[in-house]
Amino acid sequence: MHEVIQIIFLHLPEIRPPEPGAVDLSELEQQLGSITGYGSRCMVDIFNFLCSLLNVGDVAVTTEGYGPSSSDEDVQLFTLVLINSAIELGGESIGWHPRLLQLIQDDLFHHLIHHATRSGPLVLSMICSTVLNLYHFLRRSLRLQLEAFFVYVLLRISSGVSGPQLQEVAVESIISFCRQPTFIVEMFVNYDCDPIRHNVLEEIGKLLCKTAYPQINGSQMTPIQIHAFTGLVHIFTTIADSIESTAPDTSDDKENYKLDMSEYEPALDRDPPEPDSDTWVEFVRKRKFKKNKTMIAAHHYNKDEKKGMEYLKFANLVPTPPEPKTIARFFRYTPGLDKQKIGEYLGDPGEFNILVLKEFTETFDFTGVILDTALRTFLETFRLPGEAQKIQRIIEVFSEKFFDQQSSGIFATKDAVFLLCYSLIMLNTDHHNPQVRKKMTEEEFIKNNRAINEGLDLPREYLSELFHSISTNAIALFSQNASAPKELNANLWSELIRRSRIVDPFIMCDFKHELVREAFATISGPSVATLMTIFDYTNDEEIRSECIEGMISVARIAQYGLSDVLDELLSCLCKFTTLLNPYSCTEDTQAEFNQSVKMRMAMLALFTIANRFGKSVCAAWKNIVDCIIKLRRIKLLPPFGIDSSNGSATLATAGSTTTMHNKSDSGVIFPPLHNGLGTSRYVSGMIGRFSQILSLDTGAESMINLTSESEVNMKLMQQCRIVNIFTESGNFSEESLQHLGRALIFVASGKGQKFTSVGEEQDTIIFCYDLLMTVTSANLHRFMAFWPQFHEAFATLSQYTIMSPYPFPERAIAPLFRIATKIVSPPHDKQAEEAIFKSIQVIVAIENTIDMCYDTIVPLVKTLIDEHAGSIQTPFVWKTLLVILATSGRNPQTFDDAIETLNNLVTGPHLTRANYMFWADAAFNLGVHKATPLDKSVMILEMLGKSIHPILRWHKSSISDPNNNNTEGNTDDLGSRLTPYHLFMKLVTDLAKPTLARREEIRNKALIELKCCFQIAAESLDLSPGSCLNCFKNLVLPTVDNLYQKTIDYFNRHNMERETISMGGTFREAMEFLAYFYALFVTQLWQDDDFLTSWLFVLRRMDTWIKTYYGGDCTMEIRAHIPLVLKKMLQAMRDNGILVPREGDPLWESTEVQAKWIAPTVIDELFPQ
């Protein structure tokens, strides 16, 4: 028999299909017959015969799931061998012959599915082998049949419902399918991404995870668990290899995988484009995305219909406003929907509901189907409501659809269909309701349906067939089960065959990295959980090594935009290291590390994955950093130093120092880079190296040859290459970098940490900030991509007080200044400058920071300004630096450094128009503070006075080159907007403020410096009349008037005689300053239109001053001094020809009257008759 099959089917591949319309089937049969001696009809007959042999008898089902081997089973095995041979020989050419292909699609597959669930392990194994061959050669024409085989056979048996032996066969068969080159991606594309198909690949992955999941009682893994586990690892490796071989270099960015589903896309409900099309991958991904969202909508709908409909609109799964067709498709093809709620909606009398019902019915094809089969298919999709009117509406629409598609012409009208449907429902209730004792007979049923077909009877044979069908097989009118049937009954198979004639063919495609990534995402959760549980509970080192291989494969996949999966993987590994156990002391952790191979393997896997795939790690950095800190505390972390100048790190080993460069040296875990870095071959080699590292009895380099546990641990930790994580962070994604930095900042702040001593805390903090400095140095080229998130972390921590002997501001201020030093160094970046100093500003603003850290802050500011003043570009940075300097420099220990820094600026080349105002503010705040010693205050006032010289220099520069707004290397706009006059006004305003200080020496020194500044300005600054009058009205005169008011205030207080006399002396000096200013600028003042008004105001104030009583000698001294001041001012006006005795002159007449009130003799002395 086998030879006959070979003879007949051997030459089938040599027969090419005819061109359409070129040769008819009879000619093809003649051609085939001339070669083999047999035609295709013979092949069809042979296949029919072989299929009939499969039905020789069913094996009895026992508690084990199958009966003992029998002759019938031997026949089935032999038959399957013959069928396999025919398929292997015929291959793809079977698909060229429609009748042969149809036989395979219908009869053969139906028998295979039927007997697979009723036979023993051998038959099941042979059936799976046959289906595997069919998949290999003919899957393009077997899309629905393959789905049915997986859903109703392999997945069901693999769940264990048919016994452990059949389960093992089914699991092995699934793994065999998974080993096919393109099986994974093709299953995902054809089924998981199809809105109306089962999620076959997802169910396979979940089933393997469930099967491989170990028992927690510590027992060894069973063979079937090991098979499932091996299959899982193979799936991971296959996906990882394919995604790395097809993904471009930039595909690890999560943004590359985002889908735009901001609006409803009706194209997703139509036929997909060809796989070679540029839009095919995106189309498939969007369909899968829509399918997932539809399942969420179904969940909401089952809880609340309104919320479900709202979610459909929110997720853009239906158009706005919703169309009946889209709602109907949602009800028809969404698994898991509550069938009762579907029935209630379809039976509702609303206009839109009726339209949905009609569209829902249009999704069925009843062509060539007998009425009871059509009714069964229709009613299986929802639960028929109990209200008679709703049932009537639903049956009416169904009857109309069935009548339009009937091919036999039995029914004359749709009313006849409607009446017969009602009769069938009544018959079904009568025969299958246990409460009905007297059952309807066939004659009664036929009699009840007389003359319903427009007055005529329906054929008796037809009614009899319907009666027997209903009486033997009930229609599930009120089923609420939303899951798929456990068995593929005849009705479902008939529907499947009908749909297979119109469904799109099986899509054959190669791996696409976007698709296999999505495929893995569907099973990632249970996969990681299974891997981790097996690793945790198994005692088999080989299985643990295979677990690590699976973990690395998962990481290879997760690096492509699945950071949450990678985070979960690494977090579990952190847990297995036991370093995160808060109740474990240092000694216990060290002892466990020395004894536990699992802990060491977890450690190696953790840092191997963190090094290799750190660019995609996000939330897991918190746990990883905690593990590193714990390793440092228990003295297991190799000592390494970090050079903040270039971001490199050195690893200290047994008397030598090795520099860790950006490219890893060859080592146990990281061999030199080669083309196979992402392949499974590379992973296998890596796992071998894991074993080599952990081996205690092989090789010259094995750890058994090391003399102590400390050397063993040092060797192991060196292989982890922990420092490389930070020095090579320049390759991390922005999101990963942000999480890493935040983790370091929070640990450095003491958040969530428990320290046993202050020394341990301080060492940990310094270490964390060293790492943060290393990370920042490695990423200076994209500083603004990550620092705003770091700043948020600092700002968050600044709002919470953490009780510690080593406060958070003190921890953070020095590292931030170190980073700032790097930022202000060329090449320049204004945004980066401002960002780092905003963080410094946040830290300094914390309460008591200046008091705690002044001795640290001032040297840092001084060094930064002295060494990098020429590189600072933004006014914000200057303002921040100088404000910090002024506030922290008030302490006696820091006065000298602060004053020296300010003096270096004013005497050096780096004081510019852009930073002068901030410098002046800093000098003023430092000089007039009550804690500043007198000599220091005087020194600062002198410094302020000398700052007039840079202003003159800028004035001369603007005159010589009026179009040049360059602010001496500073490119900011602020310097160009500030004219020398603005800066001069800033200077004299700041000098005028100390004239009200409590210490007389400071007041008098401020007046002296004011005189000097105005004298220099009169000579070189070319002040305009308006500017001079502005100075007079808004600065000089208010200064004198404020001193007058201050003197009065002191006089009115008790026991303030000394202060009154002191303030009165300064008041007299101020009036001298008034006269001096007036003499210098009287010509410019006179040229202004407001001169007369201002002059009369001065005379009125003098009149007030001289009439005020200041007490005792002070009054006499002030009253004696005012006429002298007035005389000097009048003399200056006379000498410049401004005040001339002239009748009718308002200036002269007003002055003469006012002056005689103040000093009656002054006018006569200066203007004798």
Q: Give Rg in angstroms.
A: 47 Å
Shape, principal axes of CA atoms: elongated
Assign a percent range to the helix content.
Answer: 55-70%
Gap between N and C termini: 155 Å
Unreliable segments (pLDDT under 50, ≥5 consecutive)? 21-37, 58-69, 480-484, 651-678, 695-707
SS strand fraction: under 5%
Number of helices: 51
Largest sheet: 3 strands, antiparallel
In total, how many beta strands? 3
- Overall structural class, as computed from helix and strand content, comes to mainly alpha
As laid out across the biggest beta sheet, the strand order is 1-2-3
Average pLDDT figure: 84
What would your notes on this structure say?
There is one protein chain. The chain is mainly alpha-helical and 1169 residues long. It is 66% helix and 1% strand. It is built from 51 helices and three strands. It has a three-stranded antiparallel β-sheet with strand order 1-2-3. Strand 1 (640-642) and strand 2 (649-653) form a beta hairpin. Helix 19 (414-432) packs parallel to helix 21. 42% of the residues are buried. Mean pLDDT is 84; it is low at 21-37, 58-69, 480-484, 651-678 and 695-707.
List keywords for this structure.
1169 residues; mainly alpha; three-stranded antiparallel sheet; 51 helices; 66% helix; 1% strand; Sec7_dom
